[in-house]
Amino acid sequence: MRIISGLHKGRRINAPKKLPARPTTDMAKEALFNILNNTYYFDDISVLDLFAGIGSISYEFASRGTTQITAVDQELGCIKFINETAESFEMPIQAIKSDVFKFLEQATLKSTIIFADPPYAFPIEEFSKIPELVFENNLLEDDGVLIVEHSKHTDISHLENYNYSKSYGGNMFSFFSHPTTED
Predict the structure, then answer these.
(1) Could you give the count of Cα atoms lying within 13 Å of 78 in the half-sphere of its Cβ?
(2) Quick check: 132 and 162 in contact, CB under 8 A?
(3) Which one of 80, 112, 140, 175 has the minimum C-beta count within 10 Å?
(4) Domain span at residue 102?
(5) Per-residue pLDDT tens for 108-147?
């Protein structure tokens, strides 16, 4: 895996094979960040990376200048790897070992971008809990976006606050945001 852009562009990250992670492909990451680059100044936002795995999305944000990044994963090995890599690259990533759903139930942290990359094999009920908890607990800033990565075979377009999806190979990103109010 490599960092696509920013200060650390081209740097390779070699995670131990034993870690239970499925990093977002370079092609999908590049496409996602092209979308986000048209909406956000990365140095002005805060990011919550859920089911962070080895931290590939967190590293991309940090490389682009984001200074408020929280990565959450329940696997201690993944959290240790993120901490070691962030320290080595001098990246401002706070890694937290926690079950994501418990974290979302107790969190008070508001973020501009919340990225969730749960296991592709999750049942639809588990996928639906992510936007449900994010919006119920008001964890997304008003101009923010929740992005859920999933397989193209999983349809979550019926969930509340869904906006649209983009497909890249077998990966799909579904975007959720606060409803817009017209004056």
Answers:
(1) 24
(2) no
(3) 80
(4) 46-147
(5) 989 999 999 999 889 999 999 999 999 999 999 999 999 9
